[in-house]
Amino acid sequence: MALNINQLSVAFGNDIILDNMSIPTIYPGEMVSLIGKNGAGKSTLLKQMTKRIRPNADSITLNAKPLTLNDIGYLPQDHRVSANITVIELLITTMHVDANSLFTKAKSAEKALTLLDKIGIFHLANKICSELSGGESQLVGLAQAVVNQPSVLILDEPTSALDMHNQFMLLEYVKSYTREHNAYALMVIHDLNLAIQYSDKVAALHNNNLFAYGEPSRIIDQVLIKNVFNVNSQIIQLEQHPVVVACL
Ligand SMILES: Nc1ncnc2c1ncn2[C@@H]1O[C@H](COP(=O)(O)OP(=O)(O)OP(=O)(O)O)[C@@H](O)[C@H]1O
Fold it and tell me: Where is the signal peptide (predicted)?
């Protein structure tokens, strides 16, 4: 059981974004954060994972088979739902329910409400999607991404619109989902301290390739931060976690 990304290349015209990039095997139950400067290719990598057809199907595999759309739940960057339907209706629709069966529909509503409760957004069930705030929309996007219980969660900056409490609430949910379902979570996170706290492994992308990969406490240090972000920093050790403080 493993998720593999091997020899992946992506170019837009003459611009090479990912150059024959491989990531070490990702194991069930693992949360992996992608870090790197703006434009490094993090979203490009995640978008490649959500493609129906890839030029080289073997470049991204789940249990040795090409990753399919059925395997994944995807929360894109800046996710917004513009539809004039309620959150619960959105989730039921996402579940691909047979519209003729009232029983199945009722079961789906129950399932969707349980999920909203688990994520901590039960109160949003009857809100209209197009009227949600940015942060509410991001949390609903997470519910939509997990509602069909995918094996692979692909989350592009899932905490970017969230307040401090909701950042932790979302990441705690992703952690429990990943552990309970033996799933794989790949997330782009800009906040290094959140990445350190919530990742089993961190993948740092730089110069069109993988710069470093491993447990956050082993790979995130002043040298990496200087090389990847061109920022001076200090690392403070707090219990087992390093805490990054940027310096001028
Ligand atoms: N459809 C496209 N056509 C042309 N260039 C693109 C396209 N999509 C992305 N790029 C370019 O590819 C590079 C990587 O973009 P990507 O969105 O993957 O970066 P990122 O690491 O996710 O950045 P950020 O942290 O700013 O979200 C950028 O230089 C971007 O301009």
Answer: none
Ligand 1 lined by 229 (C-beta under 6 Å): no
Task: Compute the distance from residue 82 Cα to the ligand 1 centre, in Å.
Answer: 24
Q: Is 102 exposed, middle or buried (0-12, 13-18, 19+ CB in 10 A)?
A: exposed
ipTM of the complex: 0.98
Averaged pLDDT for residues 17-32: 97
Q: Would you say the CB of residue 36 lies under 6 angstroms from ligand 1?
A: yes
C-alpha 159 – ligand 1 centre gap (Å): 19
pLDDT in tens, 127-169: 999 999 999 999 999 999 999 999 999 999 999 999 999 999 9
Provide Rg for the chain, Cα atoms. 19
Q: Alpha-carbon distance 69 to 81, whole Å?
A: 20
Atom of ligand 1 nearest to the CA of 40: 21
End-to-end CA distance of the chain: 44
Contacts of 94 (CB under 8 A, 6+ apart): 144, 147, 148
